[in-house]
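Our preliminary data section would be incomplete without showing what the modeling component actually yields. Below, a chain of 254 amino acids is followed by its predicted structure, encoded as tokens that our downstream tools consume directly.
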Amino acid sequence: MTWTFPKTVLAGLVFVAIAACTPAPSSGSGATVTVFAAASLTDALTEIAADYERAGGTRVRLSFGASGAVARQVQAGAPADVVILADPIWMDRLAAAGRLGRQRFDLLANALVVIAPVDAAASQDVFEVLSGGGRLAIGDPESVPAGAYARTWLQATGRWEAVRDRLVFAADVRGVRAFVARHEAALGIVYRSDVVGQDEVRIVLEPPPPEQPAIVYPAAETADGGTEGRAFLDYLRTPRAAAVFRRHGFEPVA
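Predicted structure:
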């Protein structure tokens, strides 16, 4: 049986308005670029957007959620200029629906890790705790790429059948981390970037490179995006933005 705990994050999108830190933005005081992005990018993109505004760029409005939820919102006509997802498949669906503009590229790479509460006892077999009644939290594989990647890894390593009855599904990777931090799940599978700067959880297993799924974050302008969106996409590929992404645990590929 698969358990689903009450969701601790909003089922929809979480909006973060970044206040401008300079006088008038270069593209006009009323101009705004709206970015819809995967929840795992929250900290990095919030910092990058603030840097972009301080450098004189357009005011940035950020909206975060699970990639599946973000993609469905954009496909339904949500007013986004830029979309950044944690899975090319969801971006392909937006392209097939005619919701993307001409500019699209792979922006970042990431990796899976298994986490436990920071005070969890060490064990040679980290999954042994599940046999004693512990739960394993992952993102919902139907809408959360991290959950789909986790399922793929568990299946490829022969662990899926052993753990599937111990699963807890979360609305996004931050929900997974919260389950583990509160000891509601003994283990969780998240991105490496989700552990950076966290003191309530720790990495107990990082799958070796041959086992890692190819985790790529594509970025694109939407069909409704304009010059402001393209300018922000260009900024995401600058060395300054790349340094922020690396500090938050991502690997720039653009």
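Confidence is low (pLDDT under 50) at residues 1-29. The CA atoms of residues 30 and 67 lie 29 Å apart. Preliminary results of this kind motivate Aim 1 of the renewal.
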